[in-house]
Amino acid sequence: MSQYNIVISSNESTVVAEYVAEYNCSNAYQSEAQLEHDFIKRLQSQGYEYAGITNEATMIANLRKQLELLNNFAFSDTEWEGFFKKCIAGSNEGIVEKTRKMQTDHVQILKRDDGSSKNIYLIDKKNIHNNRLQVINQYVESEGAHDTRYDVTILVNGLPLVHTELKRRGVAIREAFNQIKRYQRDSFWAASGLFEYVQIFIISNGTHTKYYSNTTRSSHIKETGEGERKKSKKTSNSFEFTSYWADGNNKAIADLVDFTKTFLAKHTLLNVLTKYCVFTSEDLLLVMRPYQIAATERILSRIEISSNYKKTGTIDAGGYIWHTTGSGKTLTSFKTAQIASALPYIDKVLFVVDRKDLDYQTMKEYDRFQKGAANSNTSTRILKKQLEDSTAHIIITTIQKLDVFVSKNKGHDVFKKHIVIIFDECHRSQFGDMHLKIVKSFKNYHLFGFTGTPIFAANAVSGGNPLLKTTPQAFGDKLHTYTIVDAINDGNVLPFRIDYINTMKMKVGISDKNVSAIDKEKALADPKRIREVVNYILEHFDQKTKRNSFYSLKGQRVAGFNSILAVSSITAAKKYYAELKKQLADRNRKLNIATIFSYSANEADPEDVFSDEDFDTESLDKSSRDFLDSAIADYNDDFNVTFDTSSEKFQNYYKDLSLRMKKREVDLLIVVNMFLTGFDATTLNTLWVDKNLKQHGLIQAFSRTNRILNSVKTYGNIVCFRDLQENTDEAIALFGDRDAGSVVLLKTYDAYYNGFDENGKHQPGYVELIEELRTRFPLGEAIIGEQNQKDFISLFGAILRLKNILTAFDDFSGNEILSNRDYQDYQSVYIDLYQEFSKDKNADKEKINDDIVFEIELIRQVEINIDYILMLVAKFHESNCEDKSILVSIDKAVNSSIQLRSKKELIEHFIDSINVSSKVDEEWRKFVHKQKENDLDAIISEEKLKQEETRKFIDNSFRDGTLKTTGTDLDKIMPPVSRFGGGNRAAKKQGVTDKLMRFFEKYFGLV
What we know:
Oligomer: single chain
Mean pLDDT: 80
Largest sheet: 6 strands, mixed
Strand content: 5-15%
Number of strands: 28
């Protein structure tokens, strides 16, 4: 490979420590073309070469030249042709395969003309400045679904790895995001598919600039009914997962000029592409966020400097990272461990968790980032083997196992090795004897702590070692901070909405403070009170967990979210479980309820940290263990599994339960301490609290609910059955800042309903928006003119967003203003416009879409389902098929639902077919089955498809919730090529795909 001789080397930070914006406000209008021109000029001034490439032929010729320069090698024409076809533009490769190539297989093997082999680098990850950067614009792709012209693309060694889509100032950047989505659907896959190599997308309107990876969290958001119609695999499709770049103080760098100077500085961009991307085992590309990169680099810098200055084995060799819960600490620690373990002078990296149940969670996460990258251990014996194994570079363990190892292996060789020890959630358990034992035994270490809630003098405990009270005492300097306020401002976690439900009335004349803690706990555990709390939970369960809202989770249509009930003791857990089961049976209602707890020596620990709850069930008293066994037996019946409280089976129960929580199969989980730290489930939105929480423990527990999932989930719901208001305010002030409350907590019902003023600007409330809707767009009158249509879309979208928040407030019920029918009618108009604006008839039509945003995910969540329609049909049937007003209701309901519009014809035919003697439910099942068979037979015969293979393909599609149009599945059902000639194969396949897609949409959810 070509090498520069290094004269001087500097470890320049990828994230600038502090950035002062350069951009000066100008009043002059700036067109999109001008914005693009200025952007390219700035890139050229930063050392990018401008290349006038606008078509594929010149792109491929340039790629050959750039790879020859990088590899210091000249291809012969036949070598290049073979290498290009096999290693760059493979016909069966999509975005995932090409991403894997850039991230993990960037050295490809060339078969030379003389039969020998040669390594060809696509990118140089070791010496990043050997890579050449070029910028191109207005590239034309004419082989896609229709002609497209891309804005600005950055080529690295000739491959398009970064693509930027620009909009003029004033247009929402979400439109640039939507445009890229269209390109991924319509054209990135076209011709040789080189644009499927793009790793990072940048979207900007000049004022706001964001970036995201090519597979942005798609697995969470695969939208039901949106089949993958092209050979491209579906990728980024959730705007919620785009990120701002920032400086080391977490100040967003939003303007395009400033973003270009920082993120697109050559060393930063190349570092991000080569070092700070993680391609997971789930085929997702995660691009690390600026605060994660800053933290990683500050740890690496501390390792290097303290090693050079012979400071290892002291507190000066380490430090701590304060990154709030939910901000992706595990990814940061993984990347830190990965890079540190590759340093030539580091022997091992130990990643230490402080609770036994987190061991499994962390290993799962690390395995997701890179299969086999880390080694976990189920016993101290295995840990000892790994510490002695020179090939085990990264080891995950618990502090308990490490403590046992240190006690039993005095003078072991590993204590002299150069070791990096990273503690996750470095809290109480590390502040005791274990911490001292570990640091006394290892001689040549760097000690780092990651925490979302550091311990300062203000929240330190009274007992224990006075020299190990706070996080700085135990770990040294604070290396980087990213608080809950930063995370909410950046949209990386959600704010909380808190209800305080008073469940204990005090006797007259007794103030709360005067009641002894014992009497209070006794009162709190009173069966009458527990009955009331359970009644409240069940009355409000659907509302809080949004059970009437639908979204798609990994291809499956799901109703609402799930929840955790945190209680104060095992005794309370038993009472709550029994009462929930009883009231559910009384109401004849089915919810999947589970519970998990184990023995803990300090169950009633008054401190703010959860006591170490491991998998010890042996030490439980007999009644608690018997109870837990019976609760697990209920779980076994629900899910057809066989767990119990014996040691290994209980650990497997924990793993199975954690998986089912993430899949939203468990509706409500009752816990004492387990699952309140370190457990991430994006589908969890509600925490019911009947437990005293404060400071660290409070933020940890609340943070189970605030992971981002989609636009339906806008906050974490906390329902407190104890007065935790003071504790909440204190915790947020301590771990955010003094003004944190306004950012971390949602506003009041009145603010959303009637409007509020903020930063000198009035934010209209629900009442004002509905008033404007009725005045400007009365029902029954057509909305004439494009601008009026856009105004309606914008207004109704704002109403949908507000209604999504308001439905969680008890007060909203009965105050919706619009009747259900009026709401459906407005929604029908909204969907009509959505379908009209989304038509891809020609490129000009698409342009209309540039400055409007449709809240389709929020429409989908309030979907009317087929059961509701059948209930109306049954009513019609009861009226002896005479009440025509019911038919109008059915028509309105179907029109207001995106899901049901594709089934409209089916529903109408069914209504025509019923008579007075029909049994609606039974007839509907028969009718759907018969129609489905007839429709499928017709498609098979018209398209001459293979009978058995097609039926199997369709059955699998209904089972998986998506019709796969990529890969070879579709080819297997097609007739032999000779029947219609090779030239028409693609058109024929597309025709079959479209028919099957319409068939799938018509019957999905019904069979």
